[in-house]
Amino acid sequence: MKKRTIFNKLKEKLFLGISRNVLVLGIGSFLTDISSEMIYPVLPLFLANVLGAPKSVIGLIEGIAESTASLLKVFSGWLSDRLGRKKPLIIFGYTSSNLIKPLLAVTTSWPQVLGIRFLDRVGKGVRTSPRDALIADSTEKKSRGKAFGFHRALDTLGAALGPLSAFLILFLFSNNVRMVFLLSALPGVLAVIVFLFFLREKKSSSFKDVSLPHLSFKSLSKEFKLFVFIATIFALGNSSDAFLILRAENLGLSVALIPFAYFFFNLIYSTLSMPAGVLSDKIGRRKVVLLGYFLFAFLYLCFALANRTFHVWILFTLYGIYYALTEGVQRAFVGDLVPSGLRGMAMGTFNALTGFALLPASVIGGTLWQLLGPSATFYYGALLAFISGLLLYFFRIE
After folding, report:
1. At what angle do helices 185-198 and 87-100 cross, to 10 degrees?
2. Which of 33, 295, 376, 389 could join 368 in a cystine, given CB atoms 3.0 to 4.6 angstroms apart?
3. Distance CA 158, CA 292 (A)
């Protein structure tokens, strides 16, 4: 018994206090994001320049893909609660995405790309909510922020390395975009292997709850519903990152440097995600999310007022800090506000509503930019973030 205790303590130190499942999910997400982000920066160029797709079609493809993912997050979360198992849905989601994306290398028309992107996002929609619920189930409340922060750190590090990998492949293979799609299979297959052989599901009897077979939100707490309402208002002002890139170009940053600015943002986000999660374990999730909302309001106000190129680097740094303070911590907050047997549906509801909000947010942001100029887009985002922060401050959700 003593030897087992010593072994467990050694294992705890080896994994930095992170449970096995969180470590495995982090590594798998890291590899998957390398694969995904190798593709996404060059896919619009491939559609427009190689397949001759109109810009309206490119927007349609992305709109259908992301809406599909958001819709499925609710149902996959609910299904994982009903089944009492999350691992099969996680493996199916990651496997389907990672095996379908490399087929872009042999596409000859945009409808084929649409089909592949649709199936890729089906995989994302199926896996995301069960994955977040399993992270919450695999950790205690006192370390849940740290666990989600660790996962976001690895996930984002993959997102940062993906575009750099794509640029290197394009350089070595004379701008052959299809080679990028083909080689994206390598980290994708590795991710599937990691999940198949190393992911373990924590046994739960929660599926015996008779309320679970019904897709109903009545059993979710008022605190959870209020937080999701506030987070959705915030998301309505958080338009696509494409506007940040357009604003960077608008302020004079060269096209060649924009990918590095985005890489720098991801690097900051990845580095600070785990410390932000640990901070939320110590002082509370609400305080950290609140700080993130107000920081977002400040930096969007600065994006509206910026008039020098060097401002871009400062603002992208702040954007990375904002992401670290909110992305993983909000998921940990959701895990705190609902019991284990309902976390799949709760994560799905949160992910779906905030995901759906991005579509009107981007439409409004683009319309404001076109009619009133770029500053209007960021004034709008800053206003909604400030309102969301005030609501979270006055409604003391714990």
Report:
1. 160
2. 376
3. 23
